[in-house]
UniProtKB/TrEMBL annotation:
Residues 1-16 form the signal peptide. InterPro entries: PFN (IPR048278), PFN_euk (IPR005455), PFN_sf (IPR036140). Pfam families: Profilin. Its main location: cytoplasm. GO terms for molecular function: actin monomer binding. GO terms for cellular component: cell cortex; cytoskeleton. This is Profilin. It is found in: Cytoplasm, Cytoskeleton.
Length: 135
């Protein structure tokens, strides 16, 4: 890993850890906006290349997500929101929240028992913060 990548990684790791530290999100990751590089991950949250590319494509055109759902770590989630900033998926009581910033995609998972709206607010706030910082 280059020094630059290392700095980005350490910096981003603080943010995925921030998300999981809230107790509302149990897993989180940050990818570069084209999905080719994972910048940080908490609790071994890692998507298959096809899964992250499904999201990258979904931010541009959500019609496949509405039709076929999204897939995270092998689990299919129904698409409940998809626009050029936010893609939310739900499977029974758990869900995933994916938010695109200027240079990154935040992906976080909440377990059953958490209010989806509360979890979404946390991820959207971090996305706003990163956008404000130029990321
Ligand atoms: C992340 O957590 C640190 C403390 O560990 C805190 O100082 C910081 O404000 C948090 N950042 C965000 C964006 O919540
Ligand atoms: C989005 O993708 C669908 C299915 O692949 C396609 O039919 C549609 O034309 C696309 N929409 C745009 C705006 O590109």
């Amino acid at each position: 890993m280059s020094l630059f990548a290392n700095i980005i990684f350490s910096f981003s790791l603080a943010y995925t850890d921030n998300l999981t530290a809230t107790g509302k999100l149990d897993k989180a990751a940050i990818y570069g906006s084209d999905g080719s590089a994972m910048w940080a991950s908490s609790n071994n949250f890692k998507l298959e290349p096809s899964e992250i590319q499904e999201l990258v494509g979904g931010f541009a055109n959500a019609s496949n997500l509405w039709a076929s759902g999204l897939h995270i770590q092998g689990q299919k989630y129904f698409c409940i929101r998809a626009d050029d900033r936010s893609i939310y998926g739900k499977h029974e009581a758990e869900g995933v929240l994916c938010v695109k910033t200027k240079q990154a995609i935040l992906i976080a998972h909440y377990p059953g028992g958490i209010q989806p709206g509360e979890a979404a607010k946390i991820v959207e706030q971090l996305a706003d913060y990163l956008i404000g910082q130029g990321y």
